[in-house]
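In this supplementary section we document a worked example of the pipeline. Step one takes a protein sequence of length 638 as its only input; no multiple sequence alignment statistics are reported here. Step two produces a three-dimensional model, which step three serialises into structure tokens for compact storage. The input and output of this example are shown verbatim.
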Amino acid sequence: MIKAPPASGKSRALMFIALDKLVNQDIRKVVVAVPERSIGRSFQNTDLKKFGFFEDWRVASAYDLCKAGGNDSDKAGRFCEFMSNSCPAKILVCAHATLRNAMKQLTDDQWNDCLLAIDEFHHTSADVNSGLGDIVRRIMNNSTGHVTAMTGSYFRGDGVPVMRAEDEARFYPVTYNYYQQLNGYKYLRNLVLGYHFYKGMYLDHLSEVLDTRKKTIIHIPSVNSRASTAMGKYTEVAEIMHLIGEEVEHDYNRGIYKLRTPGGRIFKVADLVEDNPKTRETVQHYLQNMKCADDIDIIIALGTAKEGFDWEWCECCLTIGVRGSLTEIVQIIGRCTRDSEGKETAQFINMIAMPDADVPDVKVAVNDFLKAITASLLMEQVMAPSWRFKTVCEQDTDEGDKNVNTIVVEGLKPLSSVKTKQIVESQLDDLKASILQNEMTVKAISGNTTAETITQHLIPKVIREKYPELSEGEVEEVRQRVLLDMIVKGNDITDKEDGNPIDSTQTGTDDDKEKESEGNRLLKLTNRFINIDKLSINLIDTINPFQRAYEIVSKTVDAPTLKVIQNTLAEQKFDMPIELAIKLFKGPLKEWIAEHEGKHPSLDDPNPKTRELAQALTMIKNLKIRKMMGLDYELDKK
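The serialised model returned by step three reads:
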């Protein structure tokens, strides 16, 4: 199971995995399933040998079922043909829908020695009525097939687990964060996030934020959103095109509009809002076969061109209306964060109706949202910093990674099996999410159930359901680690407002019709993020006033900034007031360094006093860096 942010290379990683299984692991067929056909472009033929790999990625044209043309029945038939032993082809790419249709005609044993790779795996569900989830369970339980899951947002907004506990436990998780991604890029160096607040209709202010010099995806609001103009989506698209320039040509063969800007430049615009199947097919085909930056300038979309959509030259994502799902925002941002020659900066702009609040309150809310976005891009390492709890015996014999933060706990049951070690070291965050989403736990937390009942009965029950193969002793080992992790990280296990389980990645949908104004939703949503208030970081660079609007623009989110955020979030694990850190820094720390001939104390030192000095040193270093970079939130407030 690969968990990594958008545009981080999950598609290429799958190619390496799949080819290795075909060549070295006796897998005979590979099926790659994507949410929508436009995403299939990420799995087109790719030369890998020239970069040192032993095989190129090649998909026979007949079995690239994401290409334009053919109806659902034809594609399902082609899929079944591919799965037969007589078919020489090895790789097939299709949409989730095609996979579901074909599985109605296939038996489970036809997946023996085959690999199913599912992109955007959070589209599956543990619910009994989930077609995609049922397919995964059938292959896992009734065949010798392999499954590879790829996603940038593993948890669902509806509270239903992505997978059943016993199935999820069979996956090996791999996590990669945005800091690692950005730090390894050749061209793209930073990301800028902006919130533009307007009064009236967004169309009256679009020209203030739309930079026609940048390759841009414009996501218009849903017709059910309060940000919608009520004129209809086709009218809104026409108005946006009118703002860009005068229509010169509608290329029906390619589905592309050519517009002439007031400056005389010819613009190529793709309309993905159009519902006509033939027109949509033509546009999708054109977009899937783009070869250079000049092929398109602006894409206007509604529900598409989000997750998995591959347009490497995209520089800006302009989204209109509040998105209640943080996952959706991160997916949209991922459309412009692919590495491309000449693209040093990527930009995300969210146009939102002006809230009924003072500018300082909005500034705080936006800063919280910016923190939540950057934390989400950094994956589990930030939203839930990793701690390792050990017994005294384990600490004395441990020769593992010395960079892992460790707490020695007397009386803690040692991890007695490979399985419990894997759960604690790489699956603890997922287990906590399962606990928070469990119906009985939610009812107990929101009612009058005692803490002892929750911790000693309900939490072990969830662990048993999620990992049924564990013995009672192993369940207790994991239970202790879960409780320790929650205590150290200070996690609330209920939403303070309504008692519902916290889901920091999904907080609603764009179609919600709430009583408050659309702009006020932003302020409300910022109360749903875990630990964001403890992240003392100011990510706001400027507030630009307009005649009837204003915008808040973030500081440049580059690799050094992300590193500072990582370090600052890591400080939360220390639970040390800054006043104490300063006191230790001025006295005991200097004495310790002098006694040890200039050596600095280590965070992994077995002596708790020495670790405390190391924590103080780390906090002071981070504070100095934040102030030098203008990121210190408390300093900014003063």
